[in-house]
Amino acid sequence: MTPLAYILLLAAALFCTGVYAVLTRTNAIGLLLGVELMANAVNINFVAFSSYAGGHAGQVFAVFAIALTVAEVVVGLSLVILLYRAHKGIRVDEARALSH
Hints:
The chain is built from 3 helices and no strands. It is mainly alpha-helical. The radius of gyration is 17 Å and the shape is elongated.
């Protein structure tokens, strides 16, 4: 196997772990961590393909994706704080009651 294949296997394992976390967690922070794992797997793919092709476009795109992920984390954590203040817990099942 080439070194690129090993990196892609690592990214696939990381992405599958993130999908599993999103599908099985009811805790809001666990969901956010799963989404972060999936975003990091995509960034690993960007950088791996960029280094394999010899350019820097994937690395630049990964930096912009990381900046967007930071903004997503800020919004997500603010929603978690709102959920905790409203219901004294951070279970996603209780998020439907925020509109009442």
